[in-house]
Design brief:
The chain has about 240 residues and is α/β, with parallel strands linked by helices. It contains 7 helices and 9 strands. The protein has a domain of about 140 residues: P-loop containing nucleotide triphosphate hydrolases (Rossmann fold). The structure holds adenosine-5'-triphosphate (ATP).
Amino acid sequence: MALLEVRGLARRFGEATVLEGFSLDVKAGRAVALVGANGAGKSTVLRCVTGADVATEGTITLDGAPLDERSARCRAMLASVLDDLDFFPDLSVVEHLDLVARAHAVPDADELVDDVLHELRLIGHSGQLPHTLSSGQRRRLALATAFVRPRRLLVLDEPEQRLDTEGLTWLTARLRAEKRDGLAILFASHDQDLVAAVADQVVEVGGAEPGRPTPTTPPKPPKPPAGKSKPRPKPRRR
Ligand SMILES: Nc1ncnc2c1ncn2[C@@H]1O[C@H](COP(=O)(O)OP(=O)(O)OP(=O)(O)O)[C@@H](O)[C@H]1O
């Protein structure tokens, strides 16, 4: 049985259909990558899976039970880093990680937090407040929060964002190690190398054009008249 099962997910915003009939499975020890154009609906899937958004239709099952992100069972299983990095302005880097680890009653929390600070090269910044970090360091802090807590499913939205080359190498190795440890991973990414190195399955999200109701049959592009070349659009001037 898959750890995460998504069936028939639909998400509409007013008249606009972003997702329709979207399904996927993620098994323990496997990674599924969501790919697709900007606005295709990847973050929407991840937000529904983490309970940050509510699908218009469909079911989401985590380890055989309907997803309820408020339940202790679900919170103990699901670690996520989405797009909206949200930090407490008055808590330092190390205080953030301590808080997460202690909230999840992690044994040897100090040791784990130290290890993760070293691993993410944040150890020299552990006393800083989030707003004093670089954007890449803030991203590292957000990722660090997922690794100082228990987890069976990791949900990541473009985890490669703002990471430097060393950070990308670390991320790739870490996600592969997480899989070896039996974690299920669902992530959205625009980084083809990361997807190729980590994903066991790649799911293309898209089809419904945002802002419009989903067409039942896709419109065919008009054919150019036979013998004539297609007229080129005039270049726009600034
Ligand atoms: N709260 C909302 N209200 C209206 N439309 C929304 C809302 N949230 C998302 N959308 C629309 O849903 C579509 C899908 O957005 P989403 O963030 O899931 O795309 P994405 O595939 O993650 O894109 P990107 O690659 O740019 O991160 C977009 O067109 C977006 O404008």
